[in-house]
Design a protein that fits this description.
Strand order of the largest sheet of chain B: 17-20-21-16-15-22-23
Largest interface: A-B, 20 and 18 residues
CATH class of the largest domain in chain B: Alpha Beta
Helix content of chain A: 25-40%
Helix content of chain B: 25-40%
Number of strands of chain B: 24
Number of domains of chain A: 1
Distance between the termini of chain B: 67 Å
CATH superfamily of chain A: ANL, N-terminal domain
CATH class of chain A: Alpha Beta
Structural class of chain A: alpha/beta
Structural class of chain B: alpha/beta
Shape of chain B: globular
Strand content of chain A: 15-25%
Oligomer: heterodimer
Number of strands of chain A: 13
CATH architecture of the largest domain in chain B: 3-Layer(aba) Sandwich
CATH topology of chain A: Rossmann fold
Chain lengths: ~375, ~475
Amino acid sequence: MATDAPAAKPPAFEVADAAAVAKARTVLDAHTVETVAWHFHPSTGCPFWLEYAKSLPFDPLTEVKNYDDLKKFPPFEDEWLRGGPVRRWVPKGFADKPAYVFETGGTTGVPKSRVNMRDFRTDYEEFSATLPDEYFPKGANWLMLGPSGPRRLRLSIEHLAQHRGGICFCIDLDPRWVIKLIQKGWMEHLEAYKQHCIDQAITILEAGHEVRCLFTTPKLLEALALALEKKGTTIRQMGITGIFSGGTEFTPQWTRFAVEELLEGVYMTPTYGNTLMGLAASRPVTPADGYTIAYYAPQPRAVIEVVDFDDTNSVVPYGGTGRVKLTTLTQETFVPGFLERDEGERERPYKQYPWDGISGVRPFRALAATTTVGVY
Amino acid sequence: MHLPAWRFGKPYESLERTQLVHFLTGAPVAEVSQVGGAIIGRDLQKSARTARAALLAIDPEEIVERLQTAGNLYAHGTLTVGDSKQSPDDFVKQQSATTGLPESLCRANMQKNLFVLSNMDRMLDALSRGLPPEVLWKGFGTEHRGVVVSYQAQSPVLGLVLPSNSPGVHTLWLPVIALGVGLVMKPGGQEPWTPYRMAAAMVEAGIPAEAIGLYPGPTDVGAAILAGCGRSMIFGSAKTVEQYRGNPAVQVHGPGFSKILLGDDCVDGWERHLDVIVESVAANSGRGCINASAVYASRHTQEIAAALAERLGPIDVKPPEDPDAKLAAFTVPGAAKAIWEQIEAGLKAPGVTHATAAYGPRFVEGERCGWLRPTVVHCASPDPEIAKAEYMFPFVSVVACPQEKMLERIGPTLVATAITVDPAFQSQLIDCTAIDRLNLGPIPTNKLDWLQPHEGNIIDFLYRSRALQVPAASSRPLQVV
């Protein structure tokens, strides 16, 4: 078992009890065995994993008996996700299902892609259950003030809105162009493009569509708030009651600023996610907890571990800093031990999510210099 | 010690702080609150106009007097800076500790700032060409010639993205308050000291606290300042200069590429001017854009390089508190080494020789920092890349170039000291648009006359001179019907 980091402070949130943690682990172990069985069985697995299994020195069908056994797999290389044929990732068990392909990044070269049948819907339906109805009323309309194009997020937010009985309005936002503007140093164009996005959002908010819920990123949220303030109004006065937001720029200081100065009581919940994992919800963000943003993966469908920078099979102590290691365990996608481009601190299990979490998520220090953080 | 952000008079302690440490020991010196760009965007929307209004509520002459008081407090007083009391000695030690600048140079820069504040009335009179100060307050007025003039403020506040490399640059923004314009500053990451102490001195002297903002933070703070202020001043690299070229709202201060040009009529007496050249290259540890990075002459260049090497080459690293310390450290890990490697590569080009090679290694590696000892190179022509280089330490290329080719080869030059009495060459120098500040005669490039504009007149940057007519009874306009 991991131990506490020496300087760990007493938690300001309700830590999950040992029984709940053990129960969640049992569920994860069983789910792991079931998922591996699906992906490596010749009748249901995808061509990529069935072919890859031939190079493994163990048989996944018989030698993965719990979650820890996934360490037997070499680290997942996200480069495998670049280029085709994309069908090699479609499990035979879903060969007749309509498939989506979602892309990440893609500013230069061939983007990484992930096929989806229903995963994004399942992830966001589960996430929906964590949203308080008081602030995200059932039947309310949504505004997706985030990336458009071949993004999982775009369809996911729309599905979330529909799942909760609402209709989702969207804007045009090409994040690849944003990254290019930053890399070229065209800051005036960047500002103009941001304004173009905000103008689209304000047009929708002012058009009488009774939008109550919003997805956006920290940068766009602050830009929207400032633009509305310039017009003599606020996010709250425009009728927004709940905001679901995401991005590695979600820092405690930014959250405090947003809560104290931009939101006027509008509820905001940060999330951490990507195309591979899905969506990690946060425990409540409170001043007493120093506005700590701690995320918990949607276990058992995905697992986040905070691992030692050198020994990526070992988690760091609670409060310790490590790299994000991601495992995805759905019938559509199997990703064992993918080392993300982010780092953060390991968080104790929370009552509602009785497994490890992560806080202080930021670009991994060894890659930070080459990473361009755009608008989302 | 903690330095909070200062939101137009209201201190703001951020949850995110950077720790500044001593460049030699790593001992903590201060924590600095870090804010994000959105805070500035919001504050500018709410407070920029009130910042200027607070200044305009005070008589302009009174503002100048308060600034003079602020100068004395800054140089001699014990002030509350952040959450601590700070004496001038504390300030010098803190500034030296985080910037790597020797304490003696920190003190010299303090004197420079004091001089500017103490002479604010003369500076304003010179820069405004005798304009009655109330014209800027009211927006228009009658000149001493009886002509109505109008000056329209282009922004209620000036945004400043400040550097860490040389505390001397702060003299550039000191007149802004006296022009009735507020200040929004992003202090340099390693050198928050001057903006914080100056702001504390100004407020203590009666300058309205709501006229000043201090926003330490990452790069998006700079972007927010540039986006939110009608007028901004930014200090940066050649790339930064290029990025904002032609943007009337941004005044960019980048590398100076300042030079000494020896005319054919004076070059044979070059030895008489060695002191001027040495001071131009090495003053303030060669950190400023006004330090000379090249000497151009048509002949004797080998001898000039050798003589400069003899004077500058032996200068060695000394502890920062040593009154004879002349070299600042590069506090960013790896920076000194990287620069030296770049210079070594440049030395390999044809026609380039290293004149200080005989005076020992130039790159000195410390445990947590590095130094570069003064370096003199000789270039047989202006062609090698190193002839156009500028570095943040005493570095100079002595370039052989015929006088008739000089002005087409020197490139952008912030300060040119032209040692010549040849009227024809002087005339060409005066017409040369590559030169900003021109010294006709043996004046060190770093000796600035503050009664003259520097990289453009700050009044022309902050104000637009435009027409404003009033009925004939209240003035004597020249009307053409």
